[in-house]
Amino acid sequence: QVQLVESGGGLVQPGGSLRLSCAASGSINKISAMGWYRQALGKQREVVAAFTSEGSAIYANSLKGRFTISRDNAKNTVYLQMNSLKPEDTAVYYCNARMGLIAPYDCWGPGTQVTVSS
Predict the structure, then answer these.
(1) Residue 61 — left, alpha, or beta (φ > 0 → left; ψ -120 to 50 → alpha)?
(2) Taking CA 48 as the corner, what is the angle to CA 92 and CA 118, rounded to the nearest 5 degrees?
(3) How far, in Å, CA of 77 to CA of 29, rounded?
(4) Are 3 and 10 in contact, with CB atoms under 8 Å apart?
(5) pLDDT, tens digit, 9 for 90 and up, residues 85-108
């Protein structure tokens, strides 16, 4: 198992920026992919950005250019830089770790609230 702890959420005005962090601990060596999802009130959880098992960064098409995923392997931390935030970006943002390759399963952080409002 791996433990994921998100931080960096909060209230921001439209057009503002936030950087989310996700620190992983535990069975780090079993993580095959890692990324960010979000879930707005009344909507399904959706992928925001992630590093695939091959190490490539992928993004939701609608978020390309505004959001950037990065990582610091030495700190076992993945980041999500969010710029030009819009009210529709308001959601709970979850860190996800895909464990293993043969029979993969997901681990989730508790989530961090991002609210974009004036």
Answers:
(1) alpha
(2) 50
(3) 13
(4) no
(5) 999 999 999 999 999 888 889 999
